[in-house]
Structures are given as structure tokens and as C-alpha cells.
Write a structure and sequence with these properties.
769 residues; alpha/beta; seven-stranded parallel beta sheet; five-stranded parallel beta sheet
Length: 769
């Protein structure tokens, strides 16, 4: 038989049980015992669901209270000094303070930096390494969960991030420290972990080394080989897992690693399988991730089986089957989507259905396709339905895309001319203050949206409630002294879902939740067909907000690349084509906002870098069409209309030219957790347009002081001319409470005013001199 297994399962629960339990604990409404009980119930339920699907090996260690990389940092004792850890066991509150800066117990501290997990919308907590870094086993979480699963009778496969990928994903916080120098100190702890797992009766351990899909320097390639030459001697069988792309020039290296098994992403690296078979030693297991763990479309079982049969003939029982990667990136169960259109629902597959697909393929390889005739017939029928469906293609949209010309991709004038015209009417002070868009989404606001959606209140009542909230948000911003205002987005459930609900070609789920970070979950829309905008989406709300104030009001939109990258995208046409369709829809909205008198429009591209291919040779093609899509959405406005964009946690050094090519008048970026380090890219490139570096971390409940924000802004002003600096939070404020938000924004405005006063004093001193 071919072993079937899984690399990881969604941890949040079908109804977001983990999110609710975490937030209740953080608010002090429940105790740690209650939280741990919820975690145990989720683990046990998920293990049983995977066993019931027929998997031969169940992953353990994929459950996390916040993030799997943070779990490993805690396990290895990699706790930055500011958290006051004294070298004993890393407790749960220390762990939460590392994640979010605060916990029910322990002093607040600056949270660890957070950034994107490869090219996904999942965020991980970046390990921080110091010159005196020591590693030691500091938590028993993994071993306890292995014992827990074994006691329930499950055949377990512990899952752990590999040591080389862990070091790669971290940051050296002291000058002169090279991360690879720490490998010799790290490996003995990994040996201790593996030996202890062997003592628990574990046969296989999955060590994830996803950096094998990246462009690796020779030293890191050598480190992988030497690491596994050492670890393979411990006494458990190691399955090294790579995912998110092909191995490329690391193929020979991966096949040479002296381990018992190798997992490959056969969805994104399927063209390499025959080459791998040529390299693979005769004793080694090859696990193929044949079912897409990152998208929601039903697998083509017939095509996959035809591909697998010759590989099975060559490998026999050494062929294992799995999803391509952890199922963390897809919703839990399609069974909860009974309200979804039946035809569309038949095209989809969530985590539990993907396990069924893997197991069905494994059985068909042994028993023959005829033994699962009904399963294959259903899959074939769903694929045929999707290909033939009239809802997929819209000739008018395709004609419009074909008519896109160069004149639609450029503003009338260059930035120096535009900014003079914008400043002439804006008349903003130095260090102008603004926010990124959203304000706190209270329980009352969410209930009002639910009531309207369920038909319990009519449109007039809903509009009245939303306008009241907008007026409140505008008044609070005026009282705080902000210079450029926003309407607060009370009508929006999510920055992508809100737009997708109003665009043709999108579908939405009731419970299709996916973890973004910690307790933050999103419900990505599903793009199944050609995209268009039937009617304006935001104009009335922005027009009303502008009527409440004489100060400039920003219209708030999500950009085409972010809508694309934060959706489950159709796989029957190039992503670039879908992105251009979205860009035309957003362009229509931009022009309608301008016509309505909204003269500052923010088009968020939080996920621009997220879609960047993992191999540098593929960057140019992606960046070309992604930048063009943004420009297509923005370039139709007049020179005196100011275009903003916002980008989330990302590294910009290697794509700064593309960021500049977007030609936004103002870009706001998340920088507070990186201590303004991200601005180095803009300084070195001599970025020409205005920049708003985030001065406080909205993902933490901590409220920074005025001095702290002033220090960050002074660091920014050493890199970027003060005349081009804006002052703003890191991101939108929807997840925070009003008390935190008002306190933080008041301090932010005070910091900006203090810097203005210092600048005036400095100018006066120069005049006197």
C-alpha cells in the first residue's frame, strides 16, 4: 500500500473556536485552564477527523496557540531579553507577550517582529538571535501532545520546522552575527528533541525545510547537507518536507540528504518528479503532495491517478501521498457551506475533503480505479460542470481587458508636478497625520451588519446606523487633531471580502475561515469567473463622510493585487488576466470617487510582495503585471487627486524599484516592529514620493508613549526628508478597542506636533545664525 499522511491541519476550528478562546483569555474573561481545555478538544477532534478520513499517519505538533515558528522559538529557549525570561520553562503568558506584547500576566513589552510566511497570507513571528544566543529545551508542548495523541490510539508523525529553515527565517539582532554560526549550538537541542521522540516510540518525524524551494547561497546548501548527516544518526526516521514550489537547483541536494524520506510539492513542482526519481536512492520514501493545500478547487482525480500509476510502479510502497503543504491555508470543512450555490459547491474542496482525495488516490493505486468508481465519477462530473458553466466567462470583460493600452497606465504628470498641485489645495502641515483606514469594529457594529444581512432590519435602518457610526468616527478624528480623515469602514466585514461581495465573478462562504496570524482569521473570497463591477461600491459612504467635515477625506479601496492574492483564485486562466479584470473594476470605483469630490484615494496593496515568486528568476514577470495592475486602477485621476497605497509587513529592499514604479503619491508601510529598518530600502533607492512609516504597532494592545513615537519618527527623518514624511499607525484599527485607539492616536498627533515645533525652532535658529 501507499502510505497516506498530512503535513498539518487547520488549528482554528471550523467555528473559530480557538480564536474565541484566545481572545476571551487575553481579555481576562477566562483562565488558562479553560483555554487549555479548548485547545485539547480541538486537537483531539482534528486528530480523529484525520484518522476517520483514513490517513495512515497523523501530524502532531501542527497545533499552535499563535504561530508554529513562535512555538519552536519557545521550545528552543529563543526568548529576547526584554521579556524577562530567566531560563526556566517558557510559560504561556511569556509566549503571548512575545506574540502580541501583552498577556494577562507579565509586564508589557514590544512584540516580536511579524512577517509573511513565504508567499502566503499567513504571518509568522520572526526569531531574534543575539550574539550570546544559547539554545536549550524550554517547553514540553510537543512531547505532551505526542503522548496525548498516542493515548488516543493514533499513529503519530511529529511535525517540526527544520533547524536550517529556522535559522534562515530568523534575524540576527547584533552586528556581525551570522545566523549560520549558531547552527553548531542549535543541533544538539534538535538531537535531544529527536531522541526524546524516539523514546516515546515515534517512528517518523517530519522536519520541514521549505527554504529548499528558495535561491540558497552555497553556505546554506552545505549547512543542509551537514545538518542531516548528523541528525539522521539519532534513531528516528526523518521525512524532510519541502513545499510552496519546485526544488530547482536544490534538487540534487535534497535527494542527497541522508534521510529516510523526502516530501515534494507535486502541485507547484510536479515537473521535477521524474528527475527526482533519477536521483533518489533505492531505500528512500518519496512523499508526493499531489492535492493542492493552498487552493479550494476540487482535485482532478483521474489525471492525478494516471500520473501516479507509473511512479507507483517504480517506487512501490516507497511512494507516499499527501497534500502539497499544510492544510493551514484552506478552510476546514465544505460540509458547513450548505447555503453555497450547489453547482459552485460541487467544484470545491476544503481541508477535510482534501484528505478524502488523498486517501482515495492511495486506495485507487492499490485496489484499482474501479473500486472507487463512484468517487472518480463524481470528481469527473464536477470538473466537466465547471468547464462548461456559463457563469465562468463574460465576453464584455474580456473585450475590455483586450483594449487596455499604455495610456491607461500612466498619470498625466510626474510626481513633482502632481505633489505641487495637491499641496496647493491640501495645505497640510509638516508631518501630516492620518490613519490607514479602519476604526474599531464594536460588537454593536458587527451585530448591525449581521442583522441587515439576515433581513432582521431594512436598508434604511442599516444605512442610518452606519452613517451614525461614520459621523462618530469623523468627529473623534477631528477632536484628536488628525489632518486627513477616513470614514472608519463600519460597513466592511473585511478589506477583501467587502469588495468581492459586490463584484461579479466572486463567491463567498459562511464558514470558510483561514488563519492569518494569532487569533486573526479571514474568509477569503473565491474567484470562480470573470470579474466586473456592476455598480459603485464605496462612493455613497465616502460622500457622506466628506459631508461631515471640512478636512480632507480619504476614499478607501483595496487594490487589485491584494484582492487577488488574498482570494482563492480560479486556476483555469493566468493570474495576471484575473488581476487585470479586478484592476478595471477598481479603476471604475476610483473615478467615481473622484467625481463625487473625494480627492484623496487610498488603494491598499498590502499583499503586493506576498505574491512575489519564491525564485528570483520569476520576479520580473510577476512584478511587471502586478505594478501595471495597480497603475491601471489608479492612473485615470487628475493630477490634483492624491493616490495613497499601503503595504503590510514585508521586506522591500529587493523590490523597491517596483514599489517606486507603482507611482503612488503616498505610500504607508508597517515599520514599527522592525524599528524603522524597512526604511533603509527607501533611503538607499532614493525613493522619490511621500512615505508614511507606521509609528505604532496596531497588532499589539500596548499603547506606545509620545517619546517612543518621536524616536521612531526621528529615525525615519534621518532616512527620508521630513517634507516627504507622513505620520500614521502601522495598519488599520478595526481589531483594537476604542480606549486603546484614542489614547494611541492622541499620542501620535502629539508626537507629530512636537516634531513640527522642533523643526520650526531649528529653522528659526538657522535664520538667526
Amino acid at each position: 500500500m501507499s502510505i497516506t499522511h498530512n503535513l498539518g491541519f487547520p488549528r482554528i476550528g471550523e467555528q473559530r473556536e480557538l480564536k474565541k478562546a484566545l481572545e476571551a483569555y487575553w481579555r481576562g474573561e477566562t483562565d488558562q485552564a479553560t483555554l487549555c481545555q479548548v485547545g485539547a478538544e480541538l486537537r483531539q477532534r482534528h486528530w480523529q477527523q484525520q484518522a476517520d478520513a483514513g490517513l495512515d499517519l497523523i501530524p502532531v505538533g501542527d497545533f499552535s496557540w499563535y504561530d508554529q515558528v513562535l512555538d519552536l522559538s519557545a521550545m528552543l529557549g529563543v526568548v529576547p531579553e526584554r521579556f524577562g525570561w530567566h531560563g526556566d520553562a517558557v510559560d504561556l503568558d511569556t509566549y503571548f507577550r512575545m506574540a502580541r506584547g501583552r498577556a494577562p500576566n507579565g509586564n508589557p513589552a514590544a512584540a516580536c517582529e511579524m512577517t509573511k510566511w513565504f508567499d502566503t497570507n499567513y504571518h509568522y513571528l520572526v526569531p531574534e538571535f543575539s550574539a550570546n544566543q544559547a539554545f536549550r529545551l524550554a517547553t514540553d508542548k510537543l512531547f505532551d501532545e505526542v503522548a496525548e495523541a498516542q493515548a488516543l490510539g493514533h499513529a503519530v508523525k511529529p511535525v517540526l520546522l527544520g533547524p536550517v529553515s529556522y535559522l534562515w527565517l530568523g534575524k540576527a539582532k547584533d552586528d556581525g552575527l551570522a545566523r549560520l554560526e549558531l547552527l553548531a549550538q542549535l543541533l544538539p537541542v534538535y538531537e535531544q528533541i529527536l531522541a526524546r521522540l524516539a523514546g516515546q516510540g515515534v517512528e517518523w518525524v517530519q522536519l520541514d525545510e521549505p527554504i529548499l524551494t528558495l535561491d540558497l547561497p552555497a553556505a546554506w546548501q552545505a549547512a543542509l547537507e551537514s545538518t542531516y548527516n548528523r541528525l539522521q544518526q539519532v534513531g528516528v526516521k526523518l521525512l524532510v518536507a519541502n513545499y510552496f514550489g519546485p526544488l530547482g537547483d536544490n534538487l540534487g541536494l535534497a535527494c542527497r540528504l541522508p534521510v529516510a524520506g523526502l516530501h515534494l510539492d507535486a502541485v507547484r513542482g510536479g515537473d521535477e518528479i521524474d528527475s527526482v526519481l533519477g536521483w533518489l536512492p533505492s531505500y528512500r520514501v518519496l512523499s508526493l503532495g499531489v492535492v493542492d493545500g493552498r487552493n479550494v478547487w476540487r482535485a482532478d482525480l483521474s489525471t492525478l491517478l494516471a500520473r501516479l500509476i507509473p511512479w507507483r510502479e517504480r517506487l512501490g510502497e516507497r511512494l507516499w501521498l499527501a497534500p502539497s503543504c499544510s492544510l493551514l491555508h484552506v478552510p476546514v470543512d465544505l460540509a458547513g457551506e450548505q447555503a453555497l450555490d450547489p453547482e459552485l459547491r460541487g467544484w470545491l474542496s476544503f481541508a477535510r475533503q482534501k484528505l478524502d482525495e488523498v486517501v482515495s488516490l492511495g486506495k485507487a493505486l492499490v485496489q484499482g480505479r474501479a473500486a472507487l468508481a463512484d468517487v472518480f465519477a463524481a470528481a469527473d462530473g464536477a470538473l466537466a460542470s465547471r468547464r462548461a458553466s456559463a457563469r465562468v466567462a463574460d465576453p464584455a470583460v474580456r473585450e475590455r481587458v483586450a483594449a487596455i493600452g499604455p495610456e491607461m497606465l500612466a498619470r498625466d504628470s510626474a510626481f513633482p508636478t502632481r505633489i505641487r498641485r495637491q499641496q496647493a489645495w491640501l495645505k497640510l502641515p509638516l508631518f501630516p497625520t492620518t490613519t490607514i483606514g479602519s476604526f474599531p469594529q464594536t460588537a454593536d457594529i458587527r451585530a448591525c451588519r449581521r442583522d441587515f444581512k439576515a433581513g432582521r432590519i431594512d436598508e434604511a435602518a442599516y444605512r442610518e446606523r452606519m452613517q451614525a457610526e461614520i459621523a462618530l468616527v469623523v468627529a473623534k478624528q477631528e477632536a484628536l487633531g488628525l489632518d486627513v480623515l477616513v470614514h472608519g469602514e463600519p460597513e466592511r466585514n473585511d478589506m477583501v471580502e467587502y469588495f468581492g461581495e459586490q463584484l461579479a465573478g466572486f463567491a463567498f462562504t459562511a464558514n470558510g475561515w483561514v488563519q492569518s496570524y494569532g487569533s486573526r482569521c479571514v474568509k477569503p473570497p473565491i474567484i470562480y469567473g470573470d470579474v466586473s463591477r456592476p455598480r459603485p461600491m464605496t462612493v455613497d459612504w465616502s460622500r457622506y463622510a466628506q459631508s461631515c467635515t471640512t478636512r480632507p477625506m480619504k476614499g478607501m479601496l483595496t487594490g487589485p493585487v491584494t484582492i487577488l492574492n488574498w482570494s482563492f483564485v480560479r486556476d483555469d486562466q493566468p493570474r495576471a488576466d484575473t488581476c487585470r479584470q479586478i484592476a478595471l473594476a477598481i479603476r471604475d470605483e476610483v473615478l467615481d470617487l473622484e467625481q463625487a469630490g473625494i480627492r484623496i484615494i487610498q488603494i491598499d496593496e498590502a499583499a503586493l510582495r506576498e505574491g512575489l515568486p519564491l525564485r528570483q528568476r520569476d520576479w520580473r514577470v510577476y512584478l511587471d503585471w502586478a505594478v501595471q495592475a495597480f497603475r491601471l486602477s489608479a492612473a485615470g485621476v487628475r493630477d490634483d487627486t492624491q493616490i495613497h497605497t499601503h503595504m503590510c509587513y514585508s521586506e522591500f529592499n529587493d523590490i523597491i524599484a517596483a514599489v517606486a514604479a507603482m507611482d503612488a503619491d503616498v505610500i504607508t508601510i508597517e515599520t514599527s516592529r522592525s524599528d524603522m529598518e524597512l526604511l533603509d530600502a527607501f533611503e538607499g533607492f532614493a525613493y522619490p514620493n511621500d512615505i508614511g512609516p507606521g509609528v505604532y504597532d496596531i497588532h499589539s494592545p500596548n499603547v506606545p508613549g509620545v517619546d517612543e513615537m518621536v524616536t521612531l519618527l526621528e529615525q525615519a527623518a534621518r532616512r527620508i526628508p521630513a517634507e516627504r514624511l507622513w505620520v500614521n499607525p502601522d495598519c488599520g484599527l478595526k481589531t483594537r478597542g476604542w480606549s486603546e485607539v484614542e489614547a494611541a492616536l492622541a499620542r501620535m498627533v502629539a508626537a507629530a506636533r512636537l516634531l513640527r515645533a522642533r523643526r520650526v525652532a531649528l529653522d528659526q535658529a538657522r535664520e538667526c545664525a
